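queue> pop job 88
queue> type: inverse folding (structure -> sequence)
queue> payload:
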């Protein structure tokens, strides 16, 4: 595989800022444009052999960026990862094994001298009822989707923090683009444990964002809809296109179900209308009719890597937007329906005690309970000497007291 002779020469090729798509990120993100030309970035892409990972690698290369494309150990071989492009470094990794993640980071730094954008497209899911998935299924999904993401972050973050000390004013010090899923915002029958891992990833990244923003490091969760498998990329490189049946000498064929294992259902769930079979039926029905373009999505993700003000979440495709929006609307509606249980109505002028709601929504008489009696009980139990700190839980359980020093 051809590669640049040094980090400096590798970063020197002129950058192609010509847009390849009519889709653009909102101007509020300050995306690359003729007025704001992109500079050459070094991408490290985990899961580069899947449909979105492959398309993203090609998009970055077409814009003149440098890429380290990481395949999956035991699924790909080093020979399959070679010859993709003269500005592409082919590597292998198992994100569940920290040593392999560290070796990929070291190899990328040795080749290019820096890393600007780290992308995690890896994932694994089992399609089947929650009851049917055994410990091995659960562990594989959790270790790949959540712990794999955490391994990448924990091993790369020290480097990004160190480089943040040399960044210019207003310049981002590094960026994480973590591919989540609409399953990170929805509950999908037949994908229970998979959804749980994606929920965990969403919580991890959203929490971490507050911790790393002070260093100028950004992070975005990318939530795509169903990606097409049969899309021609049309980019000129030396690697075989896995979506082309006539160009499969290296054995890299995109799998029909992507990174999902379809598990045979047990008898209670083995019916044509079982809710647990929903995910499998959707995948089978979509076949080659997936509504989201991986090529167009990759172009937007490339812009996401170069924009100045990236969002926390980027949803790709109308399915993702509509399904997540409907989910959030239902959550808000449910909160509104039940909020009266948690927030007492304001007292009427001059009145005492809380009020209750009638069937018609009107405020009725005072709620049960003698306010004076309750107050006397509080006084009896709530008097403490100065310096003491005690709290009573609502169930009348044990007191919680602050321990004295020593």
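queue> result:
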């Amino acid at each position: 595989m051809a590669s640049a002779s040094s980090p400096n020469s590798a970063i020197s090729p002129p950058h192609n800022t010509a847009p390849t798509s009519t889709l653009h990120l909102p101007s509020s993100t300050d995306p690359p444009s003729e007025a704001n030309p992109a500079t050459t970035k070094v991408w490290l892409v985990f899961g580069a052999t899947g449909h979105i990972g492959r398309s993203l690698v090609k998009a970055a290369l077409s814009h003149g960026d440098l890429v380290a494309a990481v395949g999956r150990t035991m699924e790909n071989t080093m020979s399959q990862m070679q010859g993709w492009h003269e500005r592409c470094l082919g590597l292998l990794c198992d994100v569940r094994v920290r040593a392999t993640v560290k070796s990929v980071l070291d190899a990328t730094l040795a080749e290019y001298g820096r890393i600007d954008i780290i992308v995690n497209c890896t994932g694994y899911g089992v399609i089947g009822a929650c009851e049917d998935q055994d410990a091995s299924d659960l562990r594989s999904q959790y270790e790949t989707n959540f712990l794999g993401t955490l391994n990448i972050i924990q091993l790369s973050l020290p480097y990004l923090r160190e480089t943040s000390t040399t960044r210019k004013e207003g310049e981002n010090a590094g960026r994480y683009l973590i591919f989540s899923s609409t399953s990170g915002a929805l509950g999908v029958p037949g994908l229970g444990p998979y959804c749980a891992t994606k929920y965990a990833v969403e919580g991890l990244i959203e929490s971490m964002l507050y911790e790393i923003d002070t260093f100028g490091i950004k992070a975005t969760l990318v939530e795509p809809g169903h990606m097409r498998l049969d899309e021609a990329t049309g980019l000129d490189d030396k690697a075989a296109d896995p979506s082309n049946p006539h160009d499969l000498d290296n054995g890299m064929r995109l799998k029909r179900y992507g990174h999902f294992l379809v598990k045979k259902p047990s008898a209670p769930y083995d019916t044509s209308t079982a809710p647990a079979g929903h995910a499998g039926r959707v995948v089978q029905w979509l076949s080659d009719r997936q509504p989201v373009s991986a090529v167009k999505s990759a172009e937007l993700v490339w812009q996401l890597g170069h924009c100045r003000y990236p969002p926390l979440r980027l949803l790709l495709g109308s399915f993702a937007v509509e399904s997540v929006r409907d989910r959030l609307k239902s959550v808000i509606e449910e909160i509104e329906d039940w909020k009266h249980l948690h927030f007492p109505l304001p007292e009427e002028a001059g009145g005492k005690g809380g009020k209750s709601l009638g069937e018609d929504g009107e405020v009725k008489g005072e709620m049960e309970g003698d306010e004076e009696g309750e107050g006397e009980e509080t006084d009896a139990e709530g008097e403490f000497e100065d310096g003491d700190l005690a709290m009573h839980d609502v169930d009348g359980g044990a007191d919680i007291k602050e321990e004295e020093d020593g």
